[in-house]
Write a structure and sequence with these properties.
The protein has 447 residues and is of the alpha/beta class. The chain is built from 18 helices and eleven strands. It folds into two domains: 198 residues, Rossmann fold (3-Layer(aba) Sandwich); 135 residues, Alpha Horseshoe (Serine Threonine Protein Phosphatase 5, Tetratricopeptide repeat).
């Protein structure tokens, strides 16, 4: 598994790995690697340290509404009577997402017509998922009310109802390493795949491979749903891609016009007001296949009602140095407008101003997944790396410099107010010189 770990987290993980090695009497990383090949329990300990298993019932409830209102009705209309729906929760952690899907199917009257598979790289997490016993921390916010009727209290735990527990199966699987499709394990001809908040931690090469594998694992007309902050996949596999108010949906095969109308396609927006006439439900808005990514993003941004007003509010808060409030508003905004380059940029800027360097770096990486040609994103990613990883900072600055020198000297840098390419070249050149000097001095000290 190829993970993209931010510099600050690398230092924390290095400390944890040192503690883990001390606990097990391992005095060299090479010996740890050898032990991991033969000791599954130790491997699970390492995985628990490296991965972030944050999950709870009906997390991101708008996405479950999207599944209920749009995805499952499409799938049910297109299949023979009695044919079960096959759903895969990839990176399911301790199982709350899987059982949220089982509860949703129960509420829709589908019951045993839905087959759900949960996979994760952590055997420890899968053991907890199979047990289906949870602490109160697995229930949060208004969405927790959906799950409560299906959980029974036992001491300090909540036990899932047995009939729901039996509708899911779990097994260990490593995305990016294990082969897909895997028909003998049930991972083929899927109707719906959820892989939420997993790909954001993957390296670009792994993301490209996983995108193609997911496409091959879907049956014709099957859907893929990622988390709001996960990188887009439309460049890596021939998905039909749809923008919704709950995030981006991918489909193997485009919807027919009759299907679009059946699911409540919204009428065209009014250019004057930016509003959608009538009372249309959340639409599946197609991203044009022939357009470039930049054009698609700009179209999505222009079509997002209220996005400009939110951006102005965030900038106003930043000018007032209310960085925490700006970051919180920007985080909410990018969940609502996941394809907005401007809002992702403001989110990273607010986090950087608040000195939340790791989170800021993650925000700028998400922006670069959307459009790698943005010199401003590379430049500020370098600023995020400066406190903890000078080599990564140098690489980001060099990327930004290379983009700027190819532009006219007086051309305004996209996303940066009143800054020209020539001005940014000078600024980046100074940063590069300082970082190289610092790296050189550090190497002399090490000797």
């Amino acid at each position: 598994m190829q993970l993209n770990i931010a510099p600050f987290r690398r230092r924390v993980l290095a400390h944890r790995m040192t503690e883990l090695m001390e606990r097990h009497g391992i005095d060299h990383p090479a010996f740890l690697r050898e032990r991991l090949k033969v000791d599954p329990a130790l491997a699970d300990e390492v995985i628990a340290e490296v991965t972030i298993g944050e999950t709870y019932f009906f997390r991101d409830p708008a996405q479950f509404d999207l599944i209920r209102d749009e995805v499952l009705p499409h799938l049910l209309r297109a299949r023979p009577e009695g044919s079960p729906l096959k759903i895969w929760s990839a990176g399911c952690s301790t199982g709350e997402e899987v059982y949220s899907l089982a509860i949703l199917a129960e509420q829709m009257g589908l019951g045993e017509k839905v087959q759900i598979i949960g996979t994760d790289v952590s055997g420890r997490a899968l053991h907890q998922a199979a047990a289906a016993r949870y602490r109160c921390s697995s229930l949060r916010g208004e969405a927790s009310k959906r799950a409560m009727p299906y959980l029974a209290p036992h001491g300090d735990r909540l036990h899932l109802r047995e009939h729901l527990k039996g509708r899911a199966r779990f097994f260990k699987f490593c995305l990016g390493r294990d082969e897909l499709p895997a028909p003998t394990r049930g991972l083929a001809e899927m109707d719906l795949i959820l892989c939420r908040n997993v790909l954001i931690y993957m390296e670009p090469d792994a993301i490209r491979r996983i995108a193609r594998q997911f496409y091959q694992c879907l049956g014709d007309g099957g859907w893929l749903l990622l988390g709001p902050s996960d990188p887009p996949l439309w460049e890596h596999a021939p998905f039909a891609t749809y923008v919704t108010r709950a995030g981006v949906l991918y489909r193997r095969g485009a919807l027919r016009q009759s299907d679009d109308l059946a699911c409540g396609e919204a009428p065209a927006r009014s250019k004057a007001s930016g509003s959608v006439p009538g009372d249309a439900p959340p639409a599946l808005e197609r991203i044009g296949e022939a357009a470039t990514i930049s054009a698609r993003l700009k179209e999505a941004s222009l079509g997002s009602a209220g996005e400009g007003a939110i951006a102005r509010r965030i900038r106003s808060l930043l000018h007032k140095e209310a960085t925490g409030e700006a970051a919180a508003l920007a985080a909410k905004a990018v969940r609502k407008h996941p394809l907005s380059v401007r809002l992702h940029y403001l989110h990273g800027s607010a986090l950087l101003a608040a000195r939340q360097y790791e989170d800021a770096a993650a925000a700028f990486r998400r922006l670069l997944y959307l459009d790698r040609s943005l010199a401003a994103a590379h430049f500020f990613l370098g600023r995020c790396h400066l406190p903890g990883n000078r080599q990564a900072a140098l690489h980001a600055f060099e990327e930004a410099h290379a983009l700027c020198v190819r532009r006219p000297h007086d051309e305004r840098v996209e996303l940066m107010e009143d800054v020209t390419a020539g001005q940014l070249v000078l600024r980046i050149g100074s940063e590069i010189a300082d970082v190289r000097r610092s790296i050189q001095e550090g190497s002399h000290v090490a000797r």
